[in-house]
Amino acid sequence: MIIVLKPQSTDADVQAVCDLVSSLRYQPRIIRGVEHTVVACIGDELGNRSLEALRNLPAVDTVIPIQHRYKLVSREYHPADSVVTVGGVRIGNGEIVVIAGPCAIESADQFRTAVRHLMAAGVRLIRGMPFKPRTSPYDFQGLRDEGVRILRDVKAETGAAFVSEVMGPAHVEALADVTDMYQIGARNAQNYDLLENVAAARKPVLLKRGMASTVEEWLAAAEYLLVNGCTQVVLCERGLRSFDRSVRNVLDLGGVAVAKAESHLPVLVDPSHAAGKRALVLPLACAALGAGADGLIVEAHPDPVNAFSDAAQQIDSARFGEFLAELRPWLELAAARKKAQAK
Length: 343
Ligand code: PEP
Ligand code: MN
Known about the structure:
By secondary structure, the chain is α/β, with parallel strands linked by helices. The protein has two domains: about 1-65, Phospho-2-dehydro-3-deoxyheptonate aldolase, domain 1 (Alpha-Beta Plaits, 2-Layer Sandwich); about 85-340, Aldolase class I (TIM Barrel, Alpha-Beta Barrel), CATH 3.20.20. The protein is about 35% helix and about 20% strand. It contains ten helices and 15 strands. Strand 8, helix 3 and strand 9 form a beta-alpha-beta unit. The structure holds phosphoenolpyruvate and manganese (II) ion. Manganese (II) ion binds near residues 103 and 309.
């Protein structure tokens, strides 16, 4: 940490700061500038107590942390891209994935039809969502246990691999034998108890970024998974809350590029929840691949207009092949660029 003192600080002030810094197990080094005196504090910011409390001292102007609040997710710790394998599908290090499926499982017929359409289009990882986090308790909440039964039946029939959102430990347990990847949604992106619980299940995890989380908070949330023993983590940007209602959420492609640079974990983009409208999903998907995403997770439904949730943004699953065909040049370019970067 770096502590910047106010211009009029006396030698006694500097000494008081240094004494406090030493008592918190950092070594203070005094740097006297023309206007400001700076105390550089040497020590492990993750292992030691934070020096942020020093902000309250009258002589202190600012306290600037140097270390990130994460370690295991960082490229400094693990320089090479990580690969996460889900149901035989590799994500990361040049392998571009497209996950697709309905916002929610609504009935056996609806889900079975969507899975058949998507698998015919070449999709190998399917959104299988029996549990839905909804802003209003009056909205469709998912079929819950019945949805888990449908997931199990459709897996037995098709051999599909699933990504399923969990909102609590009971969901983690209910889905343990049927899902291939747990999703932590934007609303639970900083639910640290849940992150620890999911990590303990030792399955791959798709961690969405919270709708108002900084990139650092997103990566620190991923650190909870890694530090608790989950090694197979995929990040997912899904758009940030903003003042502008022309899109549902503002897709932060800068955040995708930063996450790729800062972390070795694969980064996916969810263009559907960012767009909020069907027509915007394709351009956002193309842009995401251009920004360096390792793939996409897209909502697709056999009868989108009558979907129980997110009807405006879901793509017709019967026409998912057409969507993929339009995306194909960007998918190929993204894979080629990643291969070239790896050399
Ligand atoms: C979802 O993927 O079903 C979902 C609810 O997305 P988010 O958590 O990004 O809102
Ligand atoms: Mn949805």
